[in-house]
Write a structure and sequence with these properties.
Strands 2, 3, 5, 6, 7 and 8 form a 6-stranded antiparallel beta sheet that branches. The chain has a two-stranded parallel ribbon with strand order 1-4. With 150 residues, the chain is of the alpha+beta class. It is 26% helix and 39% strand. Strand 7 and strand 8 form a beta hairpin. It has one domain: Thiol Ester Dehydrase, Chain A, CATH 3.10.129.10. The model has no long low-confidence stretch (mean pLDDT 98). InterPro entries: HotDog_dom_sf, MaoC-like_dom, NodN-like. It comes from Actinophytocola oryzae. It holds the Pfam family MaoC_dehydratas.
């Protein structure tokens, strides 16, 4: 979906977007995330040890899976003619199912609220569900807040 400007963003309440295409989570992504955050726990970065662990292999960090919402969100919603957008925070976040390395995820979004803050800004409250191929439970369930400024 493509929208233009603050006024169109303000009219998105109740809109559901997605799902996106499937995206594979690789060991390279997991290793880069571990290097960036300093979280080198073996369930993420040691395939040999993780094969004997509780998940049968390495899994993505929960916060890596959360971070992948951003590129998938921008795949679903293109916003033109605004000055900027910022992540404002999360109201809710859960990781019901771990994402195995080489697993595939996709995102669905429901815009629960679109609140005009003033004539030059709007806040979106978005309910995200990150699906995991082959799993009935999602990998991520999150309610995020985004602020967009003209």
């Amino acid at each position: 979906m493509k929208v233009r400007g603050i006024a169109e963003l303000g009219g998105l309440a109740g809109t559901t977007l997605g799902p996106t295409e499937w995206h594979e989570v690789t060991q390279e992504q997991v290793n880069l995330f571990a290097a960036a955050t300093g979280d080198h726990q073996w369930i993420h970065t040691d395939p040999s040890r993780a094969a004997e662990g509780p998940f049968g292999g390495t899994i993505a960090h929960g916060y890596l899976t959360l971070a992948l919402i951003i590129p998938l969100w921008t795949e679903m919603l293109v916003i033109e003619d605004i000055g900027m957008g910022v992540n404002y925070g999360l109201n809710k976040l859960r990781f019901p199912t771990p994402v195995p390395v080489d697993g595939r995820i996709r995102l669905t979004a429901h815009i629960a609220e679109a609140t005009r803050l003033d004539e030059n800004s709007v806040q979106l409250t978005v309910d995200f569900t990150m699906g995991l191929e082959g799993s009935e439970k999602p990998a991520v369930a999150a309610q995020a807040l985004y602020r967009y400024l003209a």
